[in-house]
Each structure stands twice: as structure tokens, then as C-alpha cells.
């Protein structure tokens, strides 16, 4: 499953959280923003919507790439939505919408779905799947909601909350991979790479985040 050809991972996302998650795992991606208009895509199921958006993001970036002949290029598209109370929730429209959502979500639970589409440009192959994690929200006060919304953080993320930022204090627990809530599941990425006969360790940079050298496994 290993490869002797250098691997290049292109992340089709403007999310700094996804990039930071990959970097912390020893992977330094190139970033190309897809520019996909998410509002134009409609699906009845949250799982279908996030996966379709992930596909569209990956495909949009794919058309702008000029892969080098001496490397194997991969494109990863991801998208997240929250399934809550029978609704599919992406990013809130504005502060009023974010406030309204939090007043409904507090003390309750929802399921955060993140679609992943991994395209092997060099071999014209694809692997895709959805990771799902149940999120339990704290029963926070109106004052806490107002303070959180005022930071602007919930306006930029699916479901109007984060786990790796200010919003993490307002969650009481999760059931599943925390990376799914951030927007990218590393265990799922590992499985998708295996479907393409690749290993996640082959994407590791030469130097890990802590500065130590990484010895590749072969």
C-alpha cells in the first residue's frame, strides 16, 4: 500500500480548522478554495447534503489543478452540517439566526455530519464517506448565548458552534470522533486512503509539529 512517489494533498476548503487539524497530524496540505455556492444544493438528508457538497468542492478544485508528473496528487473536499430536530443546519444566516438556534439547542443534542470526498487525480480514482458524531449541548443562559454570538465565531461554522474554539465550553460531551465536529475525521481519512491503496503515514511531513524528525515506515 505504500508509494515511492511523493504525495501531494490539496485541501479544497478555506477552513483554518481543517488545515490546522491536518497539520497537527503531521500533514501539510496545499489549500485551494473551491468557491462552491453551498446555498444552491438541496438534499432531504443531512448525510446526503454534506457528501454532495464535499464532492462539489473537490471537483471544483480538481478542474484548476495542473498535477506534476513526478508526484501523486490527491484532492480532499469536506463539508459539515448539523442535523437537529428534523432540520439540516449549515452556517447561520446572521447573529439573530445564531441566537435563535442556540436557544433551541441548549440542553439538547444533535448529530454533526461531515462528508469527505477524496480524489486521486493521478489514478482517476475516488473514495468518499460520511462521518457522524452526536453532540450534547450545555444548558447555557441567554447571557452566555449573547456573549458567544457577539464574538462572531458561531456565524462562520456549521451548526453555529465549534469544539476547538470558544464554543467548546458550551458542549457537555460528544459520541464519536471529535475531528468530525472540527470538520475532518482523521480516522475516516485513513480509511479512504486505504481504499485508494495509500497510507496516511505516507502523507506525513518530514518534520512533525513538535519539531522532531519523522522516520517514514517505508
Automatic annotation (TrEMBL):
Top-level EC class: hydrolase
EC numbers: 3.6.1.9
Species, as recorded: Micromonospora robiginosa
Family of this protein: Belongs to the Maf family.
Gene Ontology annotations for the cellular component aspect, listed alphabetically: cytoplasm
Localization terms from the record: Cytoplasm
Active site: 79
CDD domains to which the protein is assigned, alphabetical: Maf
Organism superkingdom: Bacteria
Protein name (database record): Nucleoside triphosphate pyrophosphatase
GO process annotations (BP): nucleotide metabolic process
GO terms of molecular function: nucleoside triphosphate diphosphatase activity
Catalysed reactions listed for this entry: a ribonucleoside 5'-triphosphate + H2O = a ribonucleoside 5'-phosphate + diphosphate + H(+); a 2'-deoxyribonucleoside 5'-triphosphate + H2O = a 2'-deoxyribonucleoside 5'-phosphate + diphosphate + H(+)
Cofactor: a divalent metal cation
Cited function: Nucleoside triphosphate pyrophosphatase. May have a dual role in cell division arrest and in preventing the incorporation of modified nucleotides into cellular nucleic acids.
Keywords: Cytoplasm, Hydrolase, Nucleotide metabolism
NCBIfam families, A to Z: maf
Amino acid at each position: 500500500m505504500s508509494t515511492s512517489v511523493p504525495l501531494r494533498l490539496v485541501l479544497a476548503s478555506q477552513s483554518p480548522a481543517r488545515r490546522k487539524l491536518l497539520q497537527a497530524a503531521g500533514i501539510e496540505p496545499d489549500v485551494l478554495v473551491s468557491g462552491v455556492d453551498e446555498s444552491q444544493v438541496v438534499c432531504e438528508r443531512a448525510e446526503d447534503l454534506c457528501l454532495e457538497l464535499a464532492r462539489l468542492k473537490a471537483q471544483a478544485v480538481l478542474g484548476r489543478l495542473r498535477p506534476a508528473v513526478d508526484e501523486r496528487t490527491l484532492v480532499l473536499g469536506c463539508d459539515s452540517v448539523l442535523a437537529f430536530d428534523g432540520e439540516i443546519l449549515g452556517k447561520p444566516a446572521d447573529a439573530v439566526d445564531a441566537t435563535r438556534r442556540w436557544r433551541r439547542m441548549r440542553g439538547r443534542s444533535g448529530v454533526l455530519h461531515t462528508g469527505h470526498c477524496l480524489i486521486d487525480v493521478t489514478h482517476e480514482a475516488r473514495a468518499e464517506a460520511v462521518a457522524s458524531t452526536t453532540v450534547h449541548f450545555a444548558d447555557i443562559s441567554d447571557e452566555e448565548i449573547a456573549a458567544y454570538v457577539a464574538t462572531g465565531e458561531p456565524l462562520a461554522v456549521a451548526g453555529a458552534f465549534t469544539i476547538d474554539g470558544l464554543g467548546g465550553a458550551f458542549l457537555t460531551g460528544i459520541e464519536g470522533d471529535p475531528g468530525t465536529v472540527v470538520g475532518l475525521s482523521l480516522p475516516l481519512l485513513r480509511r479512504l486512503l486505504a481504499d485508494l491503496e495509500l497510507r496516511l503515514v505516507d502523507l506525513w511531513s518530514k518534520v512533525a509539529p513538535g519539531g522532531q524528525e519523522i522516520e517514514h515506515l517505508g
